[in-house]
Amino acid sequence: MNAIRQHLIDPEICIRCNTCEETCPLNAVTHDDENYVVDAEKCKFCLDCITPCPTGSINNWRVVDRAYSLEEQFSWDELPGEDDRTPADSSDDSLSEANELEVIEILDVAHSGQGGRVKPPFSAAHPYINLYDRGAPVVATVVGNYRITDSNFESDVHHVVLDFGTSFFPVLEGQSIGVIPTGTDASGKPHLMRLYSVASPRDGERPGHNNLSLTVKRVVYEDAGNTVRGVASNYLCDLNKGDKVQVTGPFGSNFLMPNHAGANILMICTGTGSAPFRAMTEYRRRHMPFAEGKLKLYFGARTPEELPYIGSLNKLSDKFIDKQLVFSRLPEAPREYVQDRMMSESSELLELMRSVETYVYICGLKAMEQGVEDAFARVSEEGGENWSDLKQQMMQSGRYHVETY
Amino acid sequence: MSEESISAGLGTLREDSMVEVNYDELIPNNVDLSTDLRLKRALESWQPKFLDWWKVAGPADTREFEVYLRTAVGVDPKGWAKFDYLKMPEYRWGILLAPKEEGRMIPCGKHKGEPVWQEVPGEYRAMLRRLVVVQGDTEPASVEQQRYLSKTAPSLYDMRNLFQVNVEEGRHLWAMVYLLVKYFGRDGREEAEALLQRRSADADRPRILGAFNEETPDWLSFFMFTFFTDRDGKMQLESLAQSGFDPLSRSCRFMLTEEAHHMFVGETGIARVIQRTCDAMNEAGITNARDIEAVRNLGVIDLPTLQKKVNFHGSVSRDLFGSEVSTNAANAFNAGLKGRFGETKIDDDHQLEGAVYPVTRLVDGCFIDEDVPALSAINARLLDDYIKDCQGGIKRWNKVFEKAGIDFQITQPHKAFSRMIGEFADIFVTTDGEIISEQEWNQRKTEWLCTDEDNVYIQSLMNPCMKKGEYAGWIASPRIGINNQPGDFEYVKIG
User: Is A159 helix (H, G, I), strand (E, B) or coil?
Assistant: First the structure.
């Protein structure tokens, strides 16, 4: 892959105020009588220029096989189209989600379930990505960390709140952040970065605060007689208030919620896959509680005690969100999985699937993916629809998103 | 504003745990105010007077509005501002200086290459004070000029942008007052008070510069003002940012970051007016932009009227540069107190002894470019840079016509058109640069400047549009929201 990511300024929106040129520590921004432009050879993506720009014109990126020269940029009346020079090879998709290989690999795997390139919803807000990387992470402070599953049960899920102080760290619902656990692994190398989906809406875990929350499940399992403890999850779950955490990101530019009030959001998850849906639901609750678009959530867990956020979920009215909480280990009840519930109310689901206003999001363990997809296929078939056509249409219009791990 | 509401405002900000800027104090600052008790007390006694001024001269009847505002919270580019809803009287006006550049040298004039001054050099005290006072006086003046505009805002988005401009002009006043109070002793404190006592267009105590005593009666004027007149502010700040008096340089450098938003409001405001007019003409199948009546029937601003507004605001703003050939300007440059636009990027000796600069002058009834000593042509050069800077924005406007297929171009009037100050103050000149008699001027001036009838028409369009996501019929919606907010974002919550 020889494609590069190039920072560009939109000449149609730029007002030539010189702020970016003044701000750039590397003198990568320059101008002629027409345009302000970024020198691809000098720009190191420090992003210092992004916030001071009064217009937003500075925040444009293209994946190209060869960087646009200064002369080419000077000659523009408008930015070239997204695809003018972008190679068709889909391996470059992930570049628009992140620019570090270790992050790209994780996201590639997470999104493989949707079976191809999916654009964000047309009304999604424009995400910031790659503001911080391993070379220059941002430091967040833990301002809250508590267990949200019943302590008498095995599943130990924590709600971790990170505050970014005055650091610029804007996130959207559905985006992820990277966490770099302190210390080194057995071979003395720094630990791998782990991605966590943000569980709070864009305006903060607490509205108007520069903080966000994560939903972290402590990973502990037995392997060949040894107890294995997940490095990052245990690191996060054991953090105390006031501890500092190295964070990268934000990452992800596709798994984003539609912003228009007419959108139906159909969310399907298990366990900590609920994080992005908590964020999306909370955004709608805060900002458009009476939106005409429906919210529908299929949420699977073994027992109510192990379902993260069950308390706050139960407080949401049925009018605001249709909650389908599905349990597979209830005493004296047959095991029920998310896909079973989908099948049992297929006519309602079918109506939603047929609407061009419906946006589907699936998040959770890889294991659920096939079952959910089968359920969609069967519901479609019963209703005389062709699932693969329907899915294709959804994907083309940014309405079908999968993030599984 | 009561003591209580001040502390209420502080309380909410305290929770945000600012790092760089000390918001625990009454006056947010990054100038270590707490260690200079004399200065702190002086500013704390000025602050209530500032708030009183805001109450009587700031945006009218808006005290309870919750406005989605950008507040400067630091000077590091990565985290310099935050956006949140605020009531304007609770805005955190404070004192922020761009970071100190170690080893900075005076960039121009006879002290070129000497270390910059951290204190006022005695010999330049009076000149420097004048520069700071004149700059400071423009800041509250524009807020006063725009006091009633929010009542006719074409959208919540535009209303928010107006308020953002207003609170930042207020902060720029603070920046200049800080310099006066800290560095100019008792004189400075008196000047700081006087800045709050003068009023735009007041017969007895007017603002210092002419353009700041003109009315801003409608939104078209506001956009023109932010494009043309605030751009003069930008040029002046750029020149003062070169100052050998380092605190002034650092103040102005940070102010420029905020000033950019004002340019943005003007340039995109007019571009949106043009867009709307072009769209309406195309929808109605009108191709002749000169058919004013037909275009006005569509409820949009006709393009010849727009050109007249450009003529007016362009020429009034040019007067702000003062006489093209000026000894004062030469002295300020030579003393290293004020540089040229982009001083450090100009390839010359930065002292200008023996250098010349071509200045347009009237000689024997013709305009010619005459070489005059570059030192005395500092203002002429800044004015030329300004006209060029304006042209950049006008080119973008003209691209809107081009794209829409409407045959029209906005042009800047001739440099000598309708000038009250400088080389051309005593002559009468058309927008094309033809010299005419006073009598002919009086007969023909409505060809180039708005008539009462034009103004009445503009006023007739100034009906408020306060529903979120909606825009008055004479202006297009913006291409992107502030801070990337969606189209129907509620930028102002009106109680």
Answer: strand
